[in-house]
Amino acid sequence: FLFSHFFLSSQYKFRDLTIEELKNVTKTYPNFTFSMNTYTFKDGSQKDLLNFSGTVPVKYAGNSYNIPIHLWILDSHPFSPPICFLKPTVNMAISVGKHVDAHGRIYLPYLQNWKYPKSTITGLIGEMIAKFEEELPLYSLSSSDAARQSELLSYIAKITAGETDMKSKSEVSGGKTKECFNKITVVGAGDLGIACALAVAAKGAANKVVLLDLSEGAAKGGTMDLEIFALPNVEISKDFSASADSKVVVLTANSLGNAQTYLDVIQSNVDLFRGIIPAISHYSQNTVLLVASQPVEVMTYVSWKLSAFPKSRVIGIGANLDTERFQHILTNLLKAEALAKDAWIIGEQGEDKVLSWTSSNLIANQTEEMAARNSREKVANRAMEFLKGKGQRSWSVGLSIADLTDSILKDKRKVHSVSTLAKGCCNINSEVFLSLPCILGTNGVMEMVKLEEDSLVQEKLQSSAGSIHDLQQQLKL
């Protein structure tokens, strides 16, 4: 049988079971073609895997379509599900939705709940057809659109062929490669996204700011105004390829679905990020991801997992704004500049934030040390009272984000309270992101600044870590 040839050079553990199942596929879908190719995983490892391509029939809005797909069969099949992609032609574009991301990667409940022998490839294709009939995953391009997006489609073709470790493209002019310049992409064109783009442009740290508008249809509201009153070095785009070679990518997008519970809201954001992060990380493989989407601790964790970036290059905006405000109050309103430089708001955003210190200038004598601590705490409590009620408006968060990007782009090595992987800090053993004082440079977090030992602070951080971890465990990535 034809399949036997493909398996000769591979290390499939359940060869006979896999061959038998694939025979069943060809009976139902005789148009599929098979080959052996090298697949590159996100961690850079490679394997020669059996893969097959073909079309599946889909009826949508009274019309019939043949949707091209590409499936990779893992060497542990049938006990592991295939890796599935769309394979659009040059005249097709991917319609990103809850079952398909910008790379064309297909996500289905059938894949998440795969369990042999109940789960089969023919059953998978059957669900694929059913889901595609609810939400068509591809649409036709006009000839002009096809030409404009040909480069994007070529990237997708390489991704579906398993070439996921491509280098980012270089800008070429006159046969010479241009020197790298500071480019920032802001993903999401809501109030926060627009505020970020304007604040970053005003800060002057970036040569170019791209505002990636993920909304459907023509530009609306603020993005339309940005187009009307064009700003130098600010570009509005709906195409992920416009983000290529960004030094920093700011994520402000939040799902506006009809979720009923808090967990549903977060899951909706996770589903949204499944379509964003792979595309962003593909076009800007060396970027720093700066997450502002909510809840920031969880979405920073999600971004880290989906991007497979090192932890240093995935950062949440965390308590940076609260810390800057707190230090400003200490210095300018309470005239306690010496305290301000060591005072930090850490932990979670919101009501569970924690006040901490990064060094101790207290006196060695125990009585005087206690008095100094009490004095410090009184001033800090007054500052916290000033801080209450000062909400985080879009423009104020935008200014904070502009300050973070400035520190990264200019390699300032300034300390900021940002969400970073907290595992190993304060006896936290789970993979959670919490706001902690970190030195930022061109590659993101360079070093975490050591906090003053305080059992109460550690207890609060551990409590936050526990609740965040419990929430993350309920999410489907």
Mean pLDDT score: 82
CATH class of the largest domain: Alpha Beta
Shape: elongated
Query: For this entry, what is the oligomeric state of its chains?
Result: single chain
Written description of the protein model:
With 477 residues, this protein is α/β, with parallel strands linked by helices. The protein has helices at residues 2-7, 15-28, 109-112, 121-134, 143-148, 150-160, 191-203, 221-228, 262-283, 296-307, 320-333, 337-340, 366-387, 394-409, 455-473; strands at 33-40, 46-60, 63-73, 83-86, 92-94, 138-140, 172-173, 176-177, 183-187, 208-212, 234-237, 248-251, 288-291, 314-316, 343-347, 353-357, 414-421, 433-441, 444-448. It folds into 3 domains: 15-140, Ubiquitin Conjugating Enzyme (Roll); 183-316, NAD(P)-binding Rossmann-like Domain (Rossmann fold); 319-474, Lactate dehydrogenase/glycoside hydrolase, family 4, C-terminal (L-2-Hydroxyisocaproate Dehydrogenase, Chain A, domain 2, Alpha-Beta Complex). It is built from 15 helices and 19 strands. The chain has a 6-stranded parallel beta sheet, with helices on both faces. A 4-stranded antiparallel beta sheet has the order 1-2-3-4. Strand 10, helix 8 (221-228) and strand 11 (234-237) form a beta-alpha-beta unit.
